[in-house]
Structures are given as structure tokens and as C-alpha cells.
Design goal:
- The chain is mostly beta strands.
- It has one helix at 2-31; strands at residues 35-42, 45-47, 51-59, 63-67, 81-86, 91-99, 102-113, 143-149, 153-159, 165-169, 172-175, 181-185, 189-194, 200-204, 215-219, 225-230, 236-242, 248-257, 260-268, 274-280, 283-289, 295-300, 306-312, 321-326, 334-335, 341-345, 349-353, 358-361, 375-376, 382-388, 399-405, 411-418, 428-430, 436-439, 443-447, 453-458, 462-469, 475-481, 488-493.
- 6% of the residues lie in helices and 48% in strands.
- It has a four-stranded mixed sheet with strand order 2-7-6-4, with no helix packed on it. Strands 8-39-38-37 form a four-stranded antiparallel sheet, with no helix packed on it.
- Strand 34 (436-439) and strand 35 (443-447) form a beta hairpin.
- The N and C termini lie far apart (106 Å).
Length: 495
């Protein structure tokens, strides 16, 4: 009996010993294969200047590295551990665990934003193209400073998260709030845009005097390049905005024949990778979005002055609405909070597209009004700068008049700003207190909500163009010398 028990015990021991040996070999094998158990960054969304905690845990690794590097010079990271670092930019961070038999990696994204935010990150202030600031503008025409460019700027100024002004052109220039140069870099951008994490995106327009098709550059807040995207389709990338997840929404156009202009909406992620594209009926010239991020495209056709409108859901593959209109407008549709949008069409007629559409003829047959972008005030009133004295045959007038248009489609008031100054202004903005700012040929006007004149600034030598308003109430205006056409300036007005 004892002998049987001993044999049984020995057999069981051998079985367990065999299992133990097998598990031990497996464990040894696992120890020779690096395994990343966790890699986190806390918080995943924070602000510039905050401390971010990097935490990681690995098994079987002899060494680890994190890229971009968070190590001090000459410092080796432990195979598992925690490190706190102050971060300046949003980025993907890659943890790589290695040993002599191989390596394994994993990525974690961290979003770094500015606490101040930007009041004017897009050419028309926001994705709805309202041209409206959330803060009061200047109450006087006090000139704070003037910055002189040595190369031609382009597009509309946008406001950085730190209050500096970003201006595209043959040289991308960033100017501090005190008027001093922060930095500049040659990128030859037609227009610049600012994302929530502070990345500057520019649509490239020039290279040795020629238009560059299909090129976007992403630039860190310190002026270094983050990434560079070139469209493989060869389409010209004309306009840009941002989705709720930070994705870039880019409109394109491409002449494919005498009577054909093709277009796409491209969706690029934050690292400049193409996620998807959607075909449009014609080439996209401008983009507007409502509060739900539905997209309205204004597209160029080959039929003279006709434009084609299409509506897409965000990242949707097919349009949900379209319309062919006669339009000489150059600006994107303006959305209100009720999902209606407004734009010029049919030689100066203002149209509302929405649940209650309307069609307004601005007297007297003012076909030049569409050269002034619409601004949407906090009250819902629309403002546009038109010309005074237009002729019935479509001739331009010689004066300037500001129209205030009720959201239900009638002229609430109009104010004659100049009787002899021909319309050459392209700037309009409205502040949180319903003060309207518009630029004329040699003038900048500030108008109260009732149509009375608040202040004016005159410089006969300058032609004032696009406007932008900052958080601190500064009004910025681009201008160039009327006599030479070559001297470009940025004006800053602040109380």
C-alpha cells in the first residue's frame, strides 16, 4: 500500500514538475519579449505651461525611450516609471521598449492648448464666417502702432492664442501685441489659419512666382515646421477650416478641361495624413459650417458667373442639398445660430437660405456690395459695405454706404459713410457690443448699432483692406500705399 502511494505521489510530482518546467520555459520566453503594459499622459488635454505626467510600465525590457524625448541630456529612462514635464505643443508621443531580441512601440496623443484662446483664428473669425468678436473693440481711433512689411502680405490677419498677429504672404510674419516682430519664416502662404492647439496652417500659393497646387504647411507656434502635405491629385487647395475633432477640412479645385472644374473636400488629421476625401460637383472656392458642422461649399463652375452650392454632413460621402445660383460673390456663406446662412447672389442680391428663405435687392442695384464680406452681429443683424450711386447698367458708384439688414430680410437702416470715395474696401468686423468696423479706400469707419458714426480714421495715402479684432479690443487693419502699391502696413487701433 505504501509502495502504491509512493508511485502515485511520484507520478503526480512528475506531472506537476512537467507543468512547472513548461510554464517556466514560457515565462522565460515572455521575459525575452518586451511587453508594454501601459503608457499614459495625464491630462490628455491641458494647457501650455501645465505639467503633464508621463506614466509607463513594461515587462521584459532592458531599455525604453520616449519620442519626442522627455529625458534630460544624458539621462536614461527606467523601464517603468513616471516623469512630469511641461509641454508646449500638442503631439503624438511614442514609447518604445527594447531588449536584445526585439522591440515594441505604442503611441499616445496629448493636446496642449493656450489658456487665452484666440478671438480670431480664421479669416472671418470663426467657422461660421460671422466676422464677429466676442469682446469689445476700440471706442476711439487711437493709433497704437504701425508695422511695415518688407514683402507683400496676403489674406486676412488672424490672432494667435498669445495675442500676437499672424499674417500670411510671401513671408509668414508673426507680430507681438506691442508691434515688435516675434518671428518670420518664408513659407509663401496665401492665407493662414490657426488650430486650437496653436498650430498655424497655411495654404501655399507662391513658389518662384508660380502658384503651387495642393500644398499645405503646418507650423509650430515658434515658427518651426510641423508637417508638410502635398496633394497627390494635383488639385489647388483653396480654403480650409476645422472639424470638431481638430481635423482639417480642405476644399480643392482643378481645371480638367475647357468646360470642367473638378473639386474635393479633403479631411486631414492633425498630423497631416489624409483620412478621406469627398467629391464635389465643381471646384471648391469657399467653405462655411453651421453649429453642427454641416458643410456648405461654394463652387466655381465654367458657366460664367454661376456658382454651385452643396451641403455635406461632416465627413459624409454624399451631398444632402445643392443649388445653382448666379453669383459674383467671393466670400463664404455666413451662418447664424438657427442654421440659416446668407450670401450674395445674382449681382448684389442678398439671399437667406433656411427654413424661411428670402431674397433682398440692395438699392440702388448695387452690384458692388458683394465685394464687402458680411458681418453678423450679436443681435442677428447683418452688416455689409456697399457703394453709393451705382448705375442701372451695373456701373460702380463713387460713395460708400453701410447697410444693416434684419435677419428676416429687410433693411433696418443704412448710413452713408462717404459720398465721393469709391468702394475699394474689403474689411468688415463687428464686436460684442454691436459696434461695426469697415474699411474703405482710405478710411476705417466705426459705426454704432443705431447707424451713427462712432469714429473714423483717414489716411489718403493708404488703401485699407481686411480687418481683425483681438481679445484685448485691438482692431488690426492691413493696408498698402496707393501711390506705389508696394508698401504694406499693419495698423493697430486700441483705446
Amino acid at each position: 500500500m505504501r509502495r502504491e502511494i509512493t508511485i502515485l505521489f511520484t507520478a503526480i510530482s512528475l506531472v506537476f514538475a512537467g507543468c512547472s518546467v513548461f510554464d517556466s520555459d514560457d515565462e522565460i520566453e515572455k521575459q525575452h519579449e518586451p511587453v508594454i503594459i501601459e503608457f499614459t499622459i495625464d491630462p490628455g488635454l491641458g494647457y501650455r505651461g501645465d505639467m503633464f505626467l508621463f506614466s509607463w510600465k513594461t515587462e521584459g525590457a532592458d531599455r525604453v525611450r520616449i519620442e519626442p524625448s522627455i529625458s534630460d541630456p544624458g539621462e536614461d529612462l527606467p523601464v517603468s516609471g513616471q516623469v512630469s514635464r511641461e509641454l508646449l505643443y500638442s503631439s503624438w508621443y511614442t514609447l518604445t521598449a527594447e531588449n536584445d531580441l526585439g522591440s515594441v512601440s505604442t503611441n499616445t496623443w496629448v493636446e496642449v492648448r493656450y489658456r487665452e484662446g484666440s478671438n480670431w483664428p480664421l479669416p472671418r473669425a470663426d467657422r461660421m464666417n460671422t466676422g464677429r468678436s466676442s469682446y469689445p473693440g476700440p471706442m476711439t481711433n487711437t493709433l497704437k502702432w504701425v508695422y511695415d512689411f518688407d514683402k507683400e502680405p496676403s489674406g486676412t490677419p488672424i490672432i494667435n492664442h498669445d495675442g500676437s498677429v499672424i499674417v500670411g504672404g510671401k513671408v509668414l510674419t508673426v507680430i507681438n501685441p506691442d508691434g515688435s516682430l516675434k518671428w518670420r519664416v518664408e513659407t509663401k502662404t496665401h492665407q493662414v489659419y490657426l488650430s486650437e492647439d496653436g498650430t498655424i496652417h497655411g495654404v501655399l500659393a507662391y513658389q518662384e512666382g508660380y502658384v503651387v497646387p495642393g500644398t499645405i504647411t503646418a507650423i509650430h507656434p515658434d515658427g518651426t515646421e510641423r508637417w508638410h502635405y502635398t496633394n497627390p491629385d494635383g488639385h489647388r487647395l483653396a480654403t480650409l477650416s476645422y472639424g470638431p475633432d481638430g481635423c482639417l477640412i480642405v476644399g480643392s479645385s482643378h481645371q480638367t478641361g475647357y468646360d470642367r472644374i473638378d473639386g474635393y473636400i479633403y479631411y486631414l488629421n492633425k498630423e497631416g495624413d489624409l483620412e478621406s476625401r469627398v467629391s464635389t460637383e465643381f471646384g471648391v472656392s469657399s467653405i462655411g459650417m453651421n453649429q453642427d458642422y454641416d458643410i456648405i461649399t461654394m463652387e466655381n463652375t465654367t458657366k460664367g458667373y454661376y456658382s454651385y452650392l452643396e451641403r455635406f454632413t461632416y465627413k459624409g460621402e454624399e451631398n444632402i442639398w445643392q443649388d445653382l445660383i448666379l453669383s459674383t460673390g467671393y466670400y463664404a456663406p455666413v451662418f447664424d445660430p438657427n442654421d440659416a446662412f446668407y450670401m450674395f447672389r445674382d449681382y448684389g442680391y442678398l439671399s437667406c437660405f433656411g427654413q424661411t428663405p428670402w431674397y433682398l435687392d440692395l438699392p440702388p442695384d448695387c452690384n458692388a456690395c458683394n465685394h464687402s464680406p458680411l458681418a453678423l452681429g450679436p443681435s442677428g443683424i447683418l452688416y455689409t459695405l456697399g457703394c453709393l450711386g451705382c448705375t442701372d447698367d451695373g456701373g460702380y458708384g463713387t460713395g460708400q454706404v453701410l447697410y444693416a439688414i434684419h435677419p428676416q430680410g429687410w433693411i433696418q437702416w443704412h448710413t452713408v459713410l462717404a459720398e465721393t470715395d469709391r468702394l475699394y474696401g474689403f474689411g468688415s468686423a463687428v464686436d460684442s457690443e454691436e459696434h461695426i468696423y469697415v474699411s474703405g479706400t482710405s478710411n476705417i469707419y466705426a459705426v454704432n448699432a443705431d447707424g451713427s458714426l462712432l469714429w473714423t480714421y483717414d489716411d489718403p495715402a493708404q488703401r485699407f483692406n481686411s480687418l481683425a479684432l483681438s481679445l484685448d479690443g485691438t482692431l488690426y487693419a492691413l493696408a498698402y500705399d496707393l501711390q506705389t502699391g508696394r508698401k504694406y502696413r499693419l495698423y493697430a487701433f486700441h483705446d
